[in-house]
Task: inverse folding
C-alpha cells in the first residue's frame, strides 16, 4: 500500500501519517525497490523495435534551486536536476531515462542508453537543446536513424496577469532536419511533453511550490525509476487501453504492483 501511494503522488510524510509507518522505513523501502527498478529497466528494455522516438528533459531540483545554491555557495550536489526521457510515439513506452545536470556529459550518457534500448531504423525528434545535435548521431550512427529538432521560439514579453510559472507565449516553431531526410509530420515532441505532465502528476518530487522535493540524488533517482516501471508495466494508458509494455510486445499482460515486485525480487 505504501508503494501504491508513492506511485500516486503522495509524499513520504503523508504516507507516514496515513499508515503509521516510520518515514525512515519508507525511505529505505523506496531505495530498495527503486534501485532494483533501475537495474530492471536497463536489462528488460533492450532492442525494442520502434519507428518514432521523442526525447525531452524534465526540470526538478535537489535540496534547493540552482539560483539559491549559487547565491549561498552551497554544495554542487544540490541544485537543478533534469530527467532526460525518451518515449516511443506508438506504444508510449519510456525507452530510457537519465537523471543529472542539463549538460553535454549527461546528454551523451542518455544517448548511449537510448542506443541500448532500440533495435534498428527509427526517427528521433528532440527539442532545440544543442548537445543533441552531435551526441544523438554519434551514439546512433549504425542504427540508420533520421533526426530532427523542433525548436520553439518564445516571446520575451509575458502578460502581467499570467502566473509566475506560466511560460512565455510561443512566437515561432522551427522544424530543423539534422540527420537524414525525414517526413515533416514526424517532427513532433507532443507525446513526450504530455509525458512530462504524467511524471509531475505521479511523482510527488516534481510538484512545484511544495517542500516535497528530493533532498538527495539517490532518493530522486530511485523514485523516478520506480514510477517509470509502474508506468511502463502496470498502469494502463487511457488511449491505448493497455500498458506501454504490452503495446511494445515486452509482455503479454498488464502487471499488478505485486507482479512487478515479484519480478524485482531476482535483482539483488
Result:
Amino acid at each position: 500500500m505504501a508503494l501504491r501511494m508513492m506511485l500516486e503522488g503522495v509524499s513520504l510524510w503523508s504516507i507516514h501519517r496515513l499508515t503509521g509507518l516510520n518515514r525512515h522505513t519508507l525511505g529505505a523501502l523506496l531505495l530498495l525497490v527503486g534501485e532494483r527498478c533501475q537495474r530492471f529497466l536497463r536489462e528488460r528494455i533492450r532492442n525494442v523495435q520502434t519507428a518514432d522516438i521523442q526525447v525531452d528533459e524534465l526540470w526538478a531540483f535537489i535540496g534547493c534551486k540552482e539560483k539559491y545554491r549559487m547565491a549561498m555557495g552551497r554544495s554542487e550536489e544540490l541544485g537543478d536536476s533534469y530527467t532526460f526521457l525518451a518515449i516511443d510515439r506508438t506504444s508510449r513506452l519510456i525507452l530510457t531515462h537519465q537523471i543529472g545536470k542539463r549538460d553535454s556529459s549527461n546528454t551523451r550518457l542518455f544517448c548511449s542508453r537510448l542506443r541500448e534500448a532500440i533495435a534498428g531504423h527509427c526517427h528521433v525528434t528532440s527539442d532545440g537543446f544543442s548537445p543533441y545535435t552531435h551526441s544523438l548521431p554519434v551514439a546512433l550512427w549504425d542504427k540508420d536513424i533520421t533526426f530532427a529538432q523542433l525548436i520553439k521560439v518564445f516571446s520575451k514579453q509575458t502578460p502581467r496577469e499570467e502566473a509566475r510559472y506560466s511560460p512565455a507565449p510561443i512566437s515561432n516553431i522551427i522544424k530543423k532536419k539534422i540527420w537524414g531526410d525525414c517526413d515533416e509530420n514526424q517532427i513532433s515532441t507532443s507525446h513526450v511533453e504530455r509525458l512530462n505532465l504524467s511524471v509531475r502528476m505521479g511523482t510527488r518530487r516534481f510538484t512545484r511550490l511544495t517542500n516535497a522535493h528530493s533532498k538527495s540524488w539517490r532518493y530522486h533517482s530511485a523514485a523516478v525509476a520506480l514510477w517509470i516501471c509502474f508506468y511502463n508495466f502496470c498502469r494502463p494508458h487511457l488511449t491505448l487501453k493497455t500498458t506501454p509494455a504490452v503495446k511494445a510486445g515486452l509482455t503479454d499482460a498488464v502487471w499488478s504492483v505485486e507482479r512487478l515486485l515479484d519480478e524485482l525480487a531476482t535483482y539483488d
